[in-house]
Amino acid sequence: MQISRKHVVAYIGLGGNLGDRARYLAHAVERMDKMDGITVLQVSDLIETEPLDGAEEPCYLNAVAAIRTRLQPDQLLWVLHSIEHSMGRIRSERWQSRTIDLDLLLYGDQVIHQESLRVPHPQMHLRSFVLRGLCQLDAHRVHPILGETVSSLADRLGGGDFFIDPDRPQLISVAGLIGAGKTTLARLLAARFGCELIIEAYDTNPYLPKVCAGQKELALDSQLYFLHSRREQLARDRLGAGEIVFSDYVFEKDRIFARRTLDQDQYKAYEPQAVAVESQVTPPVLVLYLEASPSQCLERIHRRNRPYEQGMTLPSLETLACAYQTVFSQWRQCPVIRLDISRFDCFDKLHLDWLIRQVWAYVYCPDEEEE
User: Fold this and answer.
1) I need a labelling partner for 226 at 20 to 30 A (CA). Which of 78, 99, 131, 288 fits?
2) Is the pTM of this model over 0.85?
3) Domains of the chain from N-terminus onward
């Protein structure tokens, strides 16, 4: 094996869910360190995780190792596979239980697209257990394709572990306060992706103008109109498998507004219908959360001058902002990319191109070797 004289820092993901997991991981680290051309620099803490696909299998124990190597990427991959094989790893079905799994996550700042090797690891940005390990070793390490630090990528996951499933609709939902620019951004992205756009039924809701004019007795009718229109738009059997779709709202918005606009009796009538509908809608695979101050949004609301919005006040927007913050502080459904509208301009081509690159990473994964 020809070994380069130049050293590169690479990161290896380790995992396993059979036998003495901690001992297997420690042994794999020892084996790597003894290989010619590899020096193990540091190993993260061990992290236990549930199987990604929800299968009834033992939990995994995971870690990340930083190594210094003179091996070329394909040589390093061969060494990792040889260690796996010597420790009883059989590569067959995806996510099958295994004694040891060694993944090449990063190799310096290189981007490698070969038939048998893709670096960075194609779905590392979806795994909290990988990103947490990387953060312990080097939180400022930048993902060579996404251009974001591993710390920033970890924040998007909220502690969850995800994978790209081509058999489910790839729904990307844009969330944020009234006036934050949700519909504008969703339109621009849908046009660039050439895909369907789902927009809230504000203009067709016959009750909304009357409620905004003070007829609070129609608040339940208006809220139920939104609830059932959202169910029809996001129905699981309407959106196709693998189909990329953008919406200018998250379904959870319905309950946020119901709590704000309905009185106690109206909410009691609303709640059972909302519970029934929740299981019928397609969950997003990614949320783009537009972060905007209530004062920024109020200025935009006045500028666009929609009649039914002119009753909005700063205190009411501040209340809504708190509700959204609560929802997304507890969000675990899918990754969330937060966009500060004071720094992100969707009409700026560079900004929009950056966002499109980020979105692609959460809805599309090139064919890859078994994980």
Assistant:
1) 288
2) yes
3) 8-153 (3.30.70.560), 170-363 (3.40.50.300)
